[in-house]
Write a structure and sequence with these properties.
about 200 residues; mainly beta; elongated
């Protein structure tokens, strides 16, 4: 089974005759006998996922890497974190997806988050199943726990992903950027309730 290992700003993917799906153009080197081909959105979503992707404006282009050996993956010297999913769903903005193992399915989920924050659509990418997912972030990825009675509020520009039983709502009002004297900031924050983990990056988009 393919094994993903994060090494700061590089991902090592060790393959034993199987494969992974990775962000198009992320391969920087490999050792062994490897094959690479375009995988579209991948993940078993098929035409339905492709249509939803087109409607939502969600941009994710994957390549399939198969063979025996090690593949080195990186994008723009961003930090890499490997998240393990056990029959769970990780909701992540598509530009942060670096690679996923074969046991995971990708689909577009309409959440309203992207449209309300970055203005790039009304959906985000849902990664479901059991396996490993490598996530990119601008700086070390930070995992914040959300528990009953302990809601978490974050700046929308640092949000990367979330997993667990989380309910998202928008907190309107003055933004942190406005408080800092920076104009043009979003006049709201993201509020997460329930039980799960929210991943943020230490730099704003």
């Amino acid at each position: 089974m393919a094994q993903l290992t994060g090494a700061k700003r590089m991902l090592h993917a060790d393959l034993e005759g199987d494969g992974i799906r990775a962000a198009q153009g992320a391969m920087v080197a490999y050792v062994g006998a490897m094959e690479f081909k375009h995988a579209g959105m991948g993940g078993g979503g098929g035409l339905r996922a492709a249509v939803k992707q087109r409607i939502a404006g969600e941009s994710i282009s994957l390549m399939e890497c198969t063979g025996r050996g090690r593949v080195y993956l990186a994008v723009g010297a961003q930090d890499v974190t490997v998240v393990r999913l056990d029959d769970d769903t990780l909701t992540v903005e598509s530009e942060h997806v670096l690679a996923v193992t074969a046991g995971l399915r990708l689909d577009v989920r309409f959440s309203g988050l992207r449209g309300m924050t970055s203005g790039q659509g009304l959906a985000t990418t849902a990664i479901t199943g059991t396996g490993q997912c490598a996530i990119l972030s601008d700086g070390p990825l930070i995992a914040l726990a959300v528990g009953p009675g302990m809601p978490l509020v974050v700046d929308p520009d640092v949000y990367v992903a979330g997993t667990g039983s989380l309910q998202l709502s928008l907190v309107s009002g003055i933004s942190w950027r406005s408080l800092a004297g920076e104009g043009g900031g979003e006049p709201f924050s993201l509020r997460f309730e329930g039980t799960g983990t929210v991943y943020i990056q230490p730099a704003e988009r």
